[in-house]
Design a protein that fits this description.
The structure holds two protein chains of two kinds. Chain A is of the alpha+beta class. Chain A has five helices and three strands; from the N terminus they run H-H-H-E-H-H-E-E. In chain A, strand 2 and strand 3 form a beta hairpin. The radius of gyration of chain A is 15 Å and the shape is globular. Helices cover 48% and strands 19% of the residues of chain B. The chains are: A alpha+beta, B alpha/beta. At the A-B interface, helix 2 and helix 3 of A face helix 7, helix 9 and helix 10 of B.
Amino acid sequence: MEVMIEISKHGQHVSQDGIPDVLDVMTLLSLPDHLRKTAVTLCKLDHATAEQVAEQTKRARAVESGYLNQLVLMGYVKKERRGRKAYFYIEREENPDEMKEPWEKS
Amino acid sequence: MGKIIAIHSYKGGTGKTLLSVNLSTLYANRGKRVALLDLDFRAPSLQAILKVHNSDYWINDYLNGVCDVKKTLIDLSETHAKRGRFLVGLANPSTEAIREMTAKDRKWEMKALGRLLSLKTSLLSEASLDYVVFDTSPGLQYSSINAIVSADVVLVVSGTDISDIKGTQRMIDELYELFEKKTGLIMNKVLFDVLESKTQRADLAKKLLNSNNLPMIEMIPCFCDILRTGGVSIFVNDSPEHPFVKTLDRMATTIENL
């Protein structure tokens, strides 16, 4: 199983600090239990506040907020503010820059 | 709300597709609204078993973001179900499509996971289906793990072979438990004399369950009649009095209450 995860990581995009930024099932498997629960819940909700994630996981909002921000720092999850609320989501759309040749990138 | 059931196994040839087709038909015959989706993109087989020779859209198209999932569903209620609804979504069996699906990158797999997760809304909430059954590919592949993460219940089918039992145990510990999935075990193709002996039956169940508390949903005997049909018969419809169907009927009720 671990070998399988390692093989799947081979050739994946790795961010500058050496952390992969694609939240696929192999990454989910390699996360620690507490973060996996948060990440899987966010995958299901698609776009959610820490409170909405906490409703599903039955953990405290502050705890989920901490875990979600950790996932943001790891590069797996994006965060945006709408008024006073912070929304977390997983970026699934293609980055248009990735389709371009190096000299065309902004 | 309905349930998404993924039928999975460590090794191939355990009887996942046979169980998926018959279980889905059985639920439809009970008056339920069922969709059976072929998620075995490496070896699609539902089109052959259900004798559907073409489809305007495949599940591949849905996962590629080409169409809505409802466009992939073919209604076989009239020909394959006595009551209820029986819909099927096929995997594209062409060699080109199989090759294409095996070459997908991790970003695509991540999007595919999102699309499978959204079936809960599109098929269970909006289309009011009672059951969505995923016939998955065996082992630890992206498509099967995506299916497991998206399902409410995972049914793991194992044979009696020691390599299958050990592999299944590893998957229980390192896959289903990590995703906190409701999991039920099914042991298929068990020899009659093993099932008839209380001690041998208990020993075999213990071997698979190991120290896990998972429910052993059923130990299905090895029926030569099934092999003899060469996969062309849907037992639930063609031989409703067959002991295999009786076993399935009991199994379906247990799964309903999981």
